[in-house]
């Protein structure tokens, strides 16, 4: 028994374990091996922006859109934020759709609509005006 245990521990199962030069999976001969340096290269180059450069990029984007649409800068900034700062998409939607629908979808008040002002209260024939807040009457010059 003692010899069986020793031979069991030392026996080979028929599978050769890979050495340092061998891989677990054989490579196909048609494909060249993947190089480590190819993975390390910048396939997607990027640049880290400072806060000042981000703000300047935003201002430039607002100015670009404003040169076409001539909107208040605040409205343009809100619209760009709604379209995730994609100015081409913003301009495309602006010219494709109804302006009312465009501004409504962006949850922005249309700056081209003139606000409706309440007409001046009519002076009753008695010559007194009525306060719209407290509903009391008073002479027109008070």
Give a structural overview.
This protein has 6 helices and 2 strands; from the N terminus they run ααααααββ. It has helices at 2-10, 36-40, 51-69, 73-82, 87-96, 99-105; strands at 129-130, 137-138. The chain is mostly helical and 142 residues long. The mean pLDDT is 76. It is elongated. A two-stranded antiparallel ribbon has the order 1-2. It has a domain at 51-106. The longest helix is centred in the middle third of the chain and has 19 residues, at 51-69.
Chain-wise SSE layout:
Elements: H1 2-10, H2 36-40, H3 51-69, H4 73-82, H5 87-96, H6 99-105, E1 129-130, E2 137-138
Antiparallel strand pairs: 1-2
> How do the helices and strands follow one another from N- to C-terminus?
HHHHHHEE
Strand portion, in percent? under 5%
Kindly report how far apart the N and C termini lie: 120 Å
- What characteristic shape results from the CA principal axes? elongated
The number of distinct helices, counting runs of at least 4 residues, comes to 6
Q: Which residues form runs of ≥5 with pLDDT under 50?
A: none
Radius of gyration: 38 Å
Q: How much helix is in the residues?
A: 40-55%
Overall pLDDT metric: 76
The count of DSSP E runs of length 2 or more, i.e. the number of strands, is 2
Give the biggest sheet: 2 strands, antiparallel
The secondary structure category is: mainly alpha
**Assembly annotation:** single chain
Sheet with the most strands: spatial strand order: 1-2
Protein name: E3 ubiquitin-protein ligase ARIH1-like UBA-like domain-containing protein
């Amino acid at each position: 028994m003692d010899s069986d245990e020793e031979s069991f521990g030392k026996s080979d199962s028929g599978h050769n374990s890979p050495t340092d030069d061998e891989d677990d999976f054989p490579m196909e001969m048609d494909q060249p091996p993947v190089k480590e340096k190819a993975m390390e290269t910048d396939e997607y180059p990027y640049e880290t922006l400072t806060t000042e450069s981000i703000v300047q990029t935003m201002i430039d984007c607002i100015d670009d859109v404003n040169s076409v649409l001539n909107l208040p800068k605040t409205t343009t900034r809100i619209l760009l934020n709604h379209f995730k700062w994609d100015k081409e998409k913003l301009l495309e939607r602006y010219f494709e759709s109804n302006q009312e629908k465009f501004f409504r979808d962006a949850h922005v008040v249309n700056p081209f609509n003139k606000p409706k002002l309440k007409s001046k209260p009519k002076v009753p024939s008695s010559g007194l005006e009525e306060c719209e807040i407290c509903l009391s009457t008073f002479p027109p010059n008070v």
